Amino acid sequence: MPKFFVPAGNIREDGIIITGGDVAHIKKVLRLKEGDSLVLCDSAGFDYDAVISEFNDNSIVCRIRNKIKSDTEPNINVTLFQGIPKASKMDYIIQKTTELGISRIVPCITERCVVKINAGNSDKKIERWQKVAEEAAKQSGRG
Fold first, then answer.
1. Largest distance between two CA atoms of the chain
2. Where residue 51 falls among pLDDT bands split at 50, 70, 90?
3. What is the C-alpha separation between 60 and 53, in angstroms, rounded?
4. Mean of the per-residue pLDDT values for the chain?
5. Does residue 105 have a pLDDT over 90?
6. Which of 14, 59, 97, 101 is in Cβ range 3.0-4.6 Å of 74 for a Cys bridge?
7. Residues 2, 30: contact at Cβ < 8 Å?
8. Once rounded to an integer, what is the mean pLDDT over residues 73-88?
9. What's 104-133 look like in SS3?
10. Degrees (nearest 5) of the Cα angle 60, 65, 67?
11. Per-residue DSSP letters for 69-117?
């Protein structure tokens, strides 16, 4: 069953609203219809078994069937301090370590680090790395 992350503000008592890029993915790629089931995660340790009840232009409204404590997270929180490598290797490191269960990744600029990050592109890199981590979490079924 497909799993998607939703912001806590989109979760109501009786339903959940899916917005953003996941809407197009659900409609066009997965081709889900009203009445189909999804697992939605609030990134705070809970999964919601939900059913699609309504499609809108930029959102999908789901009805909550069940709220479940997520059991996909490891019992130990592990933080990885990673020196920033060249090229797109950091994306690969973030992807694989997220799939393995790392809780937190801290990019480090070391003395012998070749890559130089300036203030102009640091926000773009962080945003990209967050997206890679979220996609890896979806792929591996993490909560």
1. 55
2. very high
3. 8
4. 89
5. yes
6. 101
7. yes
8. 88
9. EEEEECCCCCCCCCCHHHHHHHHHHHHHHH
10. 100
11. E---S-SS--EEEEEPPSTTHHHHHHHHHHHHT-SEEEEE--TT-----
